[in-house]
Amino acid sequence: MPDHALHGLRVVDASESIAGQYCARLFADFGAEVVLAEPADGSVIRQKPPFSVTGGDSLTFLHLNSGKHSIVLTALPEREREALLAAADVVILPSSRPGSLSGLSPSCVTVDVTPFGREGPRAGWAGPEIVIQALSGMMFNNGEDGREPLYGCGDRSSYAAGLAAYIGALAALQAREERGGGQHVDITAAETAAATCFPHAFQHIYSGTLRTRADRTNPCGQILCRDGWVCIWIYNHRWVRFCETVGLQHLIPDDRFADPVIRRQNWVELFAIIQAHLGGEEAEALVDRLQRADVIAAKSYRLTELPVQKHLAERGYWESLPDGRRILGPTFRLSRTPRRVRGGPPALGQGKVAWDPRPVREGLVQAPRAAAGTGPLSGLRVMELTTAWAGPMAGRVLGFLGAECIHIESPNRVNSWRLNKERPNPDNFPAGEPGERPYDRSFLFNSQNVNKLSCILDLKTQEGRAIAKRLAAACDVVICNFRPGTLAKLGLDYESLRALRPDMIVAELPAFGLSGPLSNHAALGPTMEMAAGMSSLVGYRDGQPETTGPSYLDPIGGFNTAAAILTALRHRQRTGEGQHVEVPQVEAAMHLIGGEILSAAETGQDPVRDGNRLPHAAPHDAFPCAGHESWVAIAVRDDREWRDLCQAMGRDDLSADPRFATHADRKRHEDELTAVIAAWSCDRDAQAIADQLQSAGVPAAAVQKPRDVAQDCQLSHRGFFHRLAHPDAGEHPHPGLPFRLSATPGSQRRAAPAFGQHTDDVLARIAGLSAEEIRLAWATKATATAPLPGG
């Protein structure tokens, strides 16, 4: 299929993990030939719930392995096995015996995805989802103050690690075609989770802030409408607009709510009033009314609602396998080389695969290269028209891997993570001091714009737009996370830029896509969780849907965008063609709970929220420990782990207790089980419990606070933090990214730029402006040295 982006690539997936198999599924989706190499009794993912009520097979396996072939590697004759491995471009290694595969080509890219890596103090730890989320800082942020923190839902850290592995593998292939030779890609779920839940840890590093669970200040709340929950995000500068839109004008001058600080103190009372006033509304109609008034809101969709949602239907999202079974649509859409799933999940050992040993390198087209740098993407040049988190994270990933990233900033609409319209929070700045240039000292902006150049252009002016076009023509990739239609208004849409440079790749990441009834809805990480169905899975028993982390889906959107760009770059490398890339962040996020969505679509039943408890594990929860806001997460997945937990607790009697003898017994008496473990844990140190239980073979982890993440022993051992000096904010350790490539490693080379720090250099060296043209740009105020008042 030569029109596929990854045509000609051969991938052997020997993993038995969600992360490895999701990485390989992405390769299969975009044209690579992927072989799932299974043990004689089949991959363990074949036994992963949920299961189909009709066929009895694993829907998670279906979600991860559609489009692949299956072989039993040990059943192949030795000559066939050697030929298969020698012809592979990418091999995803088995988790348990990564060195068991031999005879790989020197040009092969090997990928190892593990919970913690193969060295360091936690190298031998078990890492199910609740353990990874507890250590990442995500879990501490979730749930109600005073109650057990919530880990989230599904196996999102594994999917995110698989996405990171796909990015790393494609970057290594990019380097191979430029420089020759394969290399090893090392990805851990723990580092991926830490990279997507970093802000509070970096805030602690910057300002010494010690956050508590009561300190969460996101300006959002939820109300129950007549047909579902709605999340409403009320920025301070949208307070009056919100009240006017919903007919609550009398609250505008109310002493309880007029001042933003006092309003936050009375948030519960405010939302009780909003609930009473709007509870009879229809959810989607209310969301639409608020969005038209520029108030961010989203319905919390139940999983059973997604297959019949009008927006997804109009976008043609859902697809069917040859046997009629439904699957989720693409994570991202490529205009020239769209996803095409070749078939359903393979039967064990299905098909015969014979690869000839020819190199898969013919027909490569070398694009013009920028100045040489370091990392697998050195020479690639990226122009960013982005703000906040998701878009900048995409550029940050590419920059970490060696690309030259130019962050275009407006003098009158400043990146909200530099300077937002809210009252400055001292905790955002080093030592709590905003300084004379607070927009250069914000930990938020400085976290996501490492390695980048800052160029100020006023795109509202004719001169600014003309310069932006010249700059874009000198770039390989343009990234935009503005609302749909913005690029066209600026004359910077794909078709316009393609006319300037035919091999251009333009990537847009709208929350809901570029078309459909919701396409113009603004969104943030929490409201995207609502729209993707995730929040319907998270919450306490009989409680409201909950969001997780500090905008969890924003960095995931950045990762998906980087993956999409690298996929398009592979096609360009082979053919010389650019294309338009669309990353609908909500649709991409749905893949992280793909098995659960397929189950709900098949059964017509929604999962019931029940805190941290799972049908297939008991206990599976957070338990109180000694100290303020101290908790330990414990997961028992089988009877062996239960016996080991009892022994570690010094309670062998519990393993013989008929209430807890089997998994079914423990589920029936889960409240009693929780009380027993909480009584044991409550006066013990959380980290000591985790160390003790992991040594006994029981998955456990302290629920880490931001300070703990900043000082995490495993992250520190693996060099996750990098010290970078900022000219105004000072020198601090910066959290890194999870991509480790053996031959062309990524890096954090310099701190985030000051506002407009590189404008003249970018205009001259990259855009090619003469000294007179640069002088004219300043004279016409197409650029600036500081944000304009009100910007």
Task: Please sum up the structure shown.
This is CoA transferase. With 791 residues, the protein is of the alpha/beta class.
What does the radius of gyration come to?
26 Å
CATH class of the domain at 620-704: Alpha Beta
Q: Count of helices? A: 30
Adjacency order of strands in the biggest sheet: 3-2-1-4-5-6-24
Largest sheet: 7 strands, mixed
Q: What's the assembly state of these chains?
A: single chain
The mean pLDDT is: 93
Q: What form results from the Cα inertia axes?
A: globular
Proportion of residues in helical segments: 25-40%
Could you name the CATH homologous superfamily of the domain at 620-704?
formyl-coa transferase, domain 3
- Which structural class do you get from the secondary structure elements? alpha/beta
How much strand? 5-15%
The low-pLDDT segments are 360-372
**Judging by the overall fold, what is the CATH architecture of the domain at 620-704?**
2-Layer Sandwich
Number of strands: 24
Describe this structure as you would to a colleague.
The protein has 791 residues and is of the alpha/beta class. The chain has a domain at 620-704: formyl-coa transferase, domain 3, CATH 3.30.1540. Helices cover 35% and strands 13% of the residues. Strands 3-2-1-4-5-6-24 form a seven-stranded mixed β-sheet. A hairpin with a 6-residue loop joins strand 19 and strand 20 (631-635). Helix 5 packs parallel to helix 19 (553-575). The longest helix has 24 residues, at 156-179. The two termini are 49 Å apart. The relative contact order is 0.15. Residues 360-372 have low confidence and may be disordered.
